[in-house]
Amino acid sequence: MVRITISGHPGSGTSTLVAAICEARGWSSLNGGDIFRQEAKNRNLSLGEFGKICADDQSVDRSLDDILKTRMSDSAGPEVMESRLCGWWAHILELDCIRLWLDVSESVRASRVVSREGVSLDLALSNNRKRSQVDLARFQEMYGLNPEDTTPYTHVIDASGLTREEVLEAALKILEELE
Predict the structure, then answer these.
(1) pTM
(2) Three-state secondary structure readout of 7-21
(3) How far apart are the first and last CA of the chain?
(4) Residue 99's domain is classified under what CATH number?
(5) Alpha-carbon distance 29 to 26, whole Å?
(6) Taking CA 21 as the corner, what is the angle to CA 88 and CA 159, rounded to the nearest 5 degrees?
(7) Does the residue 134 lie in any domain?
């Protein structure tokens, strides 16, 4: 069963943190994005094509979220779950786990996009803002949730000025305190 959920804005370092926790603890993980990518592959669609289907048919997104919720509750499931809403799902399902939000400033996230994709800082900031607006509208319409509301999270790490190692150290300290 899930022991920790990790959520944050795109570009906040959640995937990096998940990989580091799994390596440090010998745990397994599941990324909500992996479920999305696998379903696109199952349908022989590109990510863009599958994304369009999800945008046009909320039942597809809901079915993917149901897979995530089922895996979270499975005693044989992974110890670490990562997605934009996995903290919300763990809260709603009343799962006894750490629900971690990784907070990173807008400028740091945009700088990471610039480094990763080679776009201008202005374009990265604009794209990040648009994605946040689209996600907010989608999740509010589908579930009445604001993915940026940290209410369901048991812990928030402000990682804006931290190295990868410092973020991992903070997360492992949270895990150790609650064990």
Answers:
(1) 0.89
(2) EECCCCCHHHHHHHH
(3) 15
(4) 3.40.50.300
(5) 10
(6) 65
(7) no
Q: Is residue 48 part of a domain?
A: yes
Flag whether 112 is in a domain.
no
Does residue 65 lie within any of the structural domains? yes
Radius of gyration of the chain (CA): 16
For residue 6, give the 3-state DSSP assignment: strand
Backbone angles phi, psi at 98, to 5 degrees: -80, 135
Rounded to an integer, the average pLDDT of 2-7 is 96
Its domain, for residue 93, covers 4-104+153-172
160 within 8 A of 102, measured Cβ to Cβ = no
> What are the strands of the beta sheet with 98-103, ordered from one edge?
29-31, 80-82, 4-8, 98-103, 155-158
Single-letter amino acid, residue 14: T
Query: Average pLDDT of 69-75?
Result: 93
Instruction: Please state the domain count of the chain.
Output: 1
What's the pLDDT tens digit per position in 27-55? 999 998 888 889 889 999 887 788 788 87
Rounded to whole angstroms, the Cα distance separating 52 from 24 reads 37
Give me the helices (H) in 57-120, please.
58-73, 86-92, 106-117
Supply the mean pLDDT for the chain: 91
Place of tokens 């048919």: 57
- Which residue type occupies 21? I
Percent of the residues in the chain that have a pLDDT greater than 90, as a whole number: 63
